[in-house]
């Protein structure tokens, strides 16, 4: 239909109003339409306006084309426009009965015929259009007319095929065809007529064809146009098979068709041309039986097995027809591709096919028109093997990081990769197969483990269905066994993560010297890495993966993977929109940094109310790397209650993750205290003994808090009323902290009587008050009794005399009235043979009287030793005692003492002559160490362990020496001079680093060790008891101080004071002759900072330096602290170059070197082991002078000057080469001599005043030597030279020492073998310069 708007202004302009003729015609039309005037148009009279429009269309669109193009007769002019248009269409379509503009167009075929008539080939197949699809037919014709004839679609296809369509609309649309013209490039097609194609031949005859015989026929298409021939053959069971069609390329456009029927019965042969049946198609062909017996034919092979065949993989089976007679058969497969039959002779056939789909397939095998035995066969074809869909991942496949003696594992995923056999082969560095454990994990996943035992490259081959999976073969480099680890790593980020979220883990130091840490993350995407050093020996590391997949996280220490690195983390996509790990919180006392104690349960809460849905995971470790169990309880309201119990007083770390993502503030670090255990406080020593204490005599006791945990100690000592006054009184005492969690308490009882000693151990402050609760030691208070002070002058002995009777009781009375003390009398009696005599002490009638009784059994001198409270009674007459043998004082218990025996009057060479016997007060003996000096003198050393009088017998060849036995009084006390202090921490120190020394108190007696350090800043100090009479002291100074000294170095003077029993250590005893004593002065040096080192000078000029001439540069380390300076220079050939370093004594150094060849030099500068800024420097050496003008004036080895002449020299003798460089200009001669093994010899080059240079070297071994002589960095003519070193005299005389220049003859090193100085010590500055022989790297530092 034509749609007209109700506004005249919306009408499109009519293209025909372009001439006066047309305008007059329009006026005529307006006159005829008398009812329509301007007022009707302005008023919008739709009926009148539509009438006007139709009149215009009828006149200008329908009538005009015929007037313009045809010369019409009077008869034609009398026809109406409708009749004229219909007549024009009928002329164009004579084969169609077109009589109207409505019903005759409703199939759409008439439109196609009209389009093809106006433009032959645009719709050539209109007559074959399906009449049941009128809209599609009309749309096709109208679209072609619109695209290529320029006819707009003023009516829709649905409207034009409607039987009730308005004829005016159809006429308006069809009126555009008479003037239509074809556009260039239209897709014209020849007209097809499949019915004019014909088929002929025996293959389509109704009878005469038999099974398994090729049936042929021919298709001729010359009259049908251009198209494709397809032939399909359908057997009685409905199985359809395409025939083989071959174009003959002849003038009649014929095709040869071949097909082979496999079963008997009626077959339908369909022949299509251009997709349509040709004449008489389909043909019915009866297939007859061939000769033979199909029941005697058999078939077998993998292609007929019920299982085992897979899609897209060729398989086969064999058919055996022996005994069946007749012609061979063929096989047909349902839903398979074609089957290839190969005649193998002897009545056997090989049938090969390739299934393309998985599932159940049916294979029919016929012979002589009938199915063979067991046919049809059912074959289940598995999924096609697709190795590209397999994937393998795991730590065991990482290219680096794995080590020997570690289990390497990986997994292979085959789900979705079809059916195939999985094979894994692992070959070690020697090419041998390595054992590998395999485990089926289900769902197409297989786990593998191998245990590499040899470092090197391992090749892992993984195949699926005989084909390599992606990345296979995989190369894995296995490193050496992991040694002692310096760091460890743990945390959720080493196991997994979420895309777009940080994956966090913790790295902790194991020990002090950690080294350099490094991290790398390898996986499907790049991941940003951050590291946060916490300053407590640990750091937090996080990375951000942007894609899901498996990531390998490498944790490196000194550029090597730590144990268990790389860690394999499986990163997944976020679980959903409702996932907010950043809104999860954790809080509670169990996460506080302080206030926790060993053995006390603590708890914390995780609030995940706003975190969405995800699993909670908590991991924890103590400072020693031991995992810690955390109990988690789900409260059911989005919160979780967590609790744990610390087991060791070390730092603990807790990581909380939500859905694999670390929550805010995690990880949490807690310092666990040792707790408070007063029951483990140990109190011991004479000061808490119930007896043995005496008034006014110092005593002590020890409080050991090593196992008591946290807390401070409190001591209280009180005496009973009557000791110092009528009431109780507090006694003064001193507490000495021994730095090993022990305390020494010293006090002096002011009088005899009862004393109470209270020992308290603090726990923790209470919450409401600031007081401290204290717990009492389980055995506290200690009640001790103090005896009066000894007054031995009040002790009297009677009944001893100087003579005794053998066999008669000897009774000696000891009266001690007023002597004080405990009143204990002891006796020791020694007979004439030196053996002890049994004696006993019995109490007298009163408490101050005692009787000593013994019986002498033989005649001779006896020695009776009587003591009162362990002290020898003075003035006692000892029978037969030698004159002058007074008790020796000043010997302390547990303090090593010594004496010297001078026997030079009897021997001058020493020998085994001296024996000693040392008897203790208890009767036991103490071992002594005798050292023979070899000159007749002997050193004797022993350590007494009992208080009281000791007897020291010294014999020479069995005879007592004069005054033997000696009496030695051993008392409680100490000798600080016997304390030995040693270690590097007493010589120098470094700020912010531990500095150590050792204090040995063995042999110094009993006493408290005191340590103190004084300096410009506070220093942390700790002491560890080694349980062997020594302790290790460690201190950390924090600030250096600039001091003036002869070396002008930065440092500070700190004093370390070491005291023993409150007395400073003054050195060793006279035998050791120790010179050092407390306090010790230690120079503390600052830690180096290589980033503050600066370099400048012509030797670092990037535009170039002159070759062969010395260049230098300055290194400024004034602000870099103290450190070792190392300079390594590498020449263009990659060999180390010697450099000289001079200390300017102001924090700067002058470095000089000679670039002996042209090319690029690399200068590596380190300070304190770290590279300085801009290092390494790369400097280019430029040529100087003209090397081509140099000549060798003295022959090499005495032979000619040409290269390759083969001169000879003698090994072990110095050889001289003279180079004349007078005309070469500015520059120097340099020389390198290489041994047969390629090593470089030491060469001396001396510049003479006459412009010549002398080169000296000595060949150490026979063989071919190469000599490179350069001037200004470039080879001189004929360089390099070759010489041969021989043993014995050479064939020609060599340049001898007498021929050397005077300069060399005067050098001291000329007289002997040349030596290279590797160590130079500058005494003025204590700077040590060391030249490394292997790399020529000069290292300097203070000593």
TrEMBL record:
SUPFAM superfamilies: Calponin-homology domain, CH-domain, E set domains
Filamin repeat placement: 189-287, 289-381, 382-478, 479-571, 576-672, 673-786, 787-875, 896-970, 971-1040, 1085-1181, 1194-1285
Residue stretches making up the Calponin-homology (CH) domain: 79-182
InterPro entries documented for this protein: CH_dom, CH_dom_sf, Filamin, Filamin/ABP280_repeat-like, Filamin/ABP280_rpt, Ig-like_fold, Ig_E-set
A UniProt-annotated Pfam family: CH
Keyword Ribosomal protein in record: no
GO molecular function: actin filament binding
SMART domains: CH (SM00033), IG_FLMN (SM00557)
Any single GO BP term: nervous system development
PANTHER family named among the record's database cross-references: FILAMIN-A, JITTERBUG, ISOFORM N
Family membership noted in the UniProt record: Belongs to the filamin family.
Protein's recorded name: Calponin-homology (CH) domain-containing protein
């Amino acid at each position: 239909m034509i749609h007209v708007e109700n506004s005249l202004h919306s009408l499109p302009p009519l293209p025909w109003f372009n001439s006066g003729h047309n305008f007059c015609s329009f006026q005529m039309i307006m006159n005829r339409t008398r009812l329509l005037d301007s007022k009707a148009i302005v008023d919008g009279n739709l009926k009148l306006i539509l009438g006007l429009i139709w009149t215009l269309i009828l006149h200008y669109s329908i009538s005009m084309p015929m007037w313009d193009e045809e010369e019409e007769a009077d008869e034609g002019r009398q026809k109406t426009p409708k009749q004229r248009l219909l007549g024009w269409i009928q002329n164009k379509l004579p084969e169609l009965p077109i009589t109207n503009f409505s019903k005759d167009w409703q199939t759409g075929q008439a439109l196609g015929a009209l389009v093809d008539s106006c433009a032959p080939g645009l719709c050539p197949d209109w007559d074959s259009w399906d009449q049941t699809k009128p809209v599609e037919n009309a749309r096709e014709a109208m679209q072609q007319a619109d695209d290529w004839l320029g006819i707009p679609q003023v009516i829709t296809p649905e409207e034009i095929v409607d039987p009730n369509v308005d004829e005016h609309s159809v006429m308006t649309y069809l009126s555009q065809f008479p003037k239509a013209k074809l556009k260039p490039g239209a897709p014209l097609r020849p007209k097809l007529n499949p019915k004019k194609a014909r088929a002929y031949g025996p293959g389509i005859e109704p009878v005469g064809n038999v099974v398994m015989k090729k049936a042929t026929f021919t298709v001729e298409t010359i009259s049908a146009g251009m198209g494709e021939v397809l032939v399909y053959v359908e057997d009685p069971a409905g199985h359809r098979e395409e025939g083989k069609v071959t174009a003959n390329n002849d003038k009649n456009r014929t095709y040869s068709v071949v097909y082979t029927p496999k079963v008997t019965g009626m077959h339908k042969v369909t022949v299509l041309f251009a997709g349509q049946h040709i004449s008489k198609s389909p043909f019915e062909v009866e297939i007859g039986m061939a000769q033979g017996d199909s029941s005697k034919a058999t078939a077998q092979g993998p292609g007929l097995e019920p299982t085992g065949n897979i899609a897209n993989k060729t398989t086969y089976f064999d058919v055996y027809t022996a005994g069946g007679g007749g012609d061979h058969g063929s096989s047909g497969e349902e839903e398979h591709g074609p089957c290839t039959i190969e005649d193998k002779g002897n009545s056997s056939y090989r049938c090969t096919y390739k299934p393309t789909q998985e599932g159940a397939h049916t294979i029919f095998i016929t012979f002589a028109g009938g199915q063979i035995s067991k046919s049809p066969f059912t074959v289940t074809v598995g999924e096609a093997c697709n190795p590209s869909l397999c994937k393998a991942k795991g730590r065991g496949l990482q290219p680096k990081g794995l080590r020997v003696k570690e289990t390497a594992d990986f997994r292979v995923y085959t789900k979705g990769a079809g059916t195939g056999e999985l094979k894994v082969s692992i070959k070690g560095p020697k090419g041998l197969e390595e054992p590998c454990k395999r485990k089926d994990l289900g769902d197409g996943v297989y786990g593998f483990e191998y245990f590499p035992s040899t470092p090197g490259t391992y090749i892992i081959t993984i195949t699926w269905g005989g084909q390599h999976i992606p990345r296979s073969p995989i190369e894995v480099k296995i490193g050496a066994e992991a040694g002692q680890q310096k760091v460890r790593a743990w945390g959720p980020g080493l196991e997994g993560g979420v895309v777009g979220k940080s994956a966090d883990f913790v790295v902790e130091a194991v020990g002090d010297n950690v080294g350099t840490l490094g991290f790398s993350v390898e996986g499907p995407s790049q991941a940003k890495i951050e590291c946060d050093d916490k300053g407590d020996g640990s750091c937090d590391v996080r990375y951000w993966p942007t894609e899901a997949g498996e990531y390998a996280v490498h944790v490196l220490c000194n550029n090597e993977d730590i144990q268990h690195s790389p860690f394999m983390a499986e990163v997944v996509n976020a679980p959903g929109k409702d996932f907010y790990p950043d809104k999860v919180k954790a809080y509670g006392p169990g996460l506080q940094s302080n206030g926790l104690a060993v053995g006390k349960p603590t708890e914390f809460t995780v609030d995940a109310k706003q975190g969405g849905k995800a699993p909670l995971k908590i991991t924890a470790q103590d400072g020693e790397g031991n995992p810690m169990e955390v109990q988690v309880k789900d409260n059911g309201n989005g919160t979780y209650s967590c609790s744990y119990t610390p087991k060791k007083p070390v730092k603990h770390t807790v990581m909380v993750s939500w859905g694999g993502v670390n929550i805010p503030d995690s990880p949490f670090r807690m310092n666990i205290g040792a707790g408070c255990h007063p029951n483990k406080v140990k109190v011991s020593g004479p000061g808490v003994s119930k007896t043995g204490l005496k008034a006014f005599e110092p005593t002590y006791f020890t409080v050991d808090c090593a196992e008591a945990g946290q807390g401070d100690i409190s001591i209280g000592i009180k005496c009973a009323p009557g000791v110092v006054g009528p009431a109780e009184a507090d006694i003064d005492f001193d507490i000495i902290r021994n730095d090993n969690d022990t305390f020494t308490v010293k006090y002096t009882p002011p009088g005899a009587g009862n004393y109470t000693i209270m020992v308290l151990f603090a726990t923790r402050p209470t919450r409401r008050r600031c007081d401290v609760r204290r717990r009492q030691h389980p055995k506290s208070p200690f009640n001790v009794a103090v005896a009066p002070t000894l007054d031995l002058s009040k002790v009297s002995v009677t009944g001893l005399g100087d003579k005794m009777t053998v066999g008669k009781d000897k009774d000696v009375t000891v009266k001690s009235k007023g002597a004080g003390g405990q009143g204990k009398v002891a006796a020791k009696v020694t007979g004439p043979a030196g053996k002890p005599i049994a004696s006993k002490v019995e109490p007298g009638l009163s408490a101050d009287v005692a009787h000593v009784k013994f019986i002498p059994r033989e005649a001779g001198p006896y020695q009776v030793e009587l003591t009162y409270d362990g002290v020898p009674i003075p003035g006692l007459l000892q029978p037969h005692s030698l004159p002058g043998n007074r008790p020796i004082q000043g010997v302390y218990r547990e303090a090593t003492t010594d004496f010297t025996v001078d026997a030079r009057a009897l021997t001058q060479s020493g020998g085994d002559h001296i024996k000693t016997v040392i008897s203790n007060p208890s009767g036991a003996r103490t071992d002594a160490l005798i050292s023979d000096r070899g000159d007749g003198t002997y050193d004797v050393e022993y350590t007494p362990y009992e208080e009281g009088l000791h007897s020291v017998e010294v014999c020479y060849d069995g005879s007592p020496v004069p005054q033997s036995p000696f009496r030695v009084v051993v008392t409680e006390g100490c000798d600080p001079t016997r304390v030995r202090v040693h270690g590097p921490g007493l010589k120098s120190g470094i700020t912010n680093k531990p500095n150590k020394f050792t204090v040995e108190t063995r042999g110094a007696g009993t006493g408290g060790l005191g340590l103190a350090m004084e300096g410009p800043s506070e220093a942390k100090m700790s002491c560890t008891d080694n349980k062997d009479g020594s302790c290790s002291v460690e201190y950390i100074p924090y600030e250096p101080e600039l001091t003036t000294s002869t070396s002008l170095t930065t440092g500070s003077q700190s004093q370390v004071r070491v005291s023993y029993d409150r007395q400073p250590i003054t050195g060793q005893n006279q035998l050791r002759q120790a010179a050092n004593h407390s306090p010790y002065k230690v120079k503390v040096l600052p830690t180096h900072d290589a980033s503050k080192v600066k370099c400048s000078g012509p030797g670092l000029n990037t535009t170039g330096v002159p070759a062969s001439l010395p260049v230098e540069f300055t290194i400024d380390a004034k602000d870099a602290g103290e450190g070792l300076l190392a300079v390594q220079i590498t020449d263009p050939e990659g060999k180390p170059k010697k450099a000289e370093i001079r200390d300017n004594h102001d924090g700067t150094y002058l470095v000089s070197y000679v670039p002996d060849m042209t090319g690029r030099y690399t200068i590596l500068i380190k300070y304190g082991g770290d590279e300085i800024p801009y290092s390494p420097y790369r400097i280019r050496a430029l040529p100087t002078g003209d090397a081509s003008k140099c000549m060798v004036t003295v022959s090499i080895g005495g032979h000619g000057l040409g290269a390759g002449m083969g001169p000879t020299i003698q090994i072990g003798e110095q050889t001289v080469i003279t180079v004349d460089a007078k005309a070469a200009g500015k520059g120097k001669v340099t020389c390198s001599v290489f041994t047969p093994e390629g090593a470089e010899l030491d060469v001396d080059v001396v510049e003479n005043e006459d412009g010549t240079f002398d080169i000296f070297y000595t060949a150490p071994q026979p063989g071919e030597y190469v000599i490179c002589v350069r001037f200004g960095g470039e080879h001189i003519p004929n360089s390099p030279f070759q010489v041969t070193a021989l043993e014995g005299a050479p064939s020609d005389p060599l340049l001898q020492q007498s021929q050397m220049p005077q300069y060399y003859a005067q050098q001291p090193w000329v007289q002997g073998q040349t030596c290279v100085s590797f160590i130079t010590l500058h005494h003025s500055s204590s700077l040590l310069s060391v030249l490394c022989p292997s790399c020529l790297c000069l290292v300097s530092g203070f000593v």
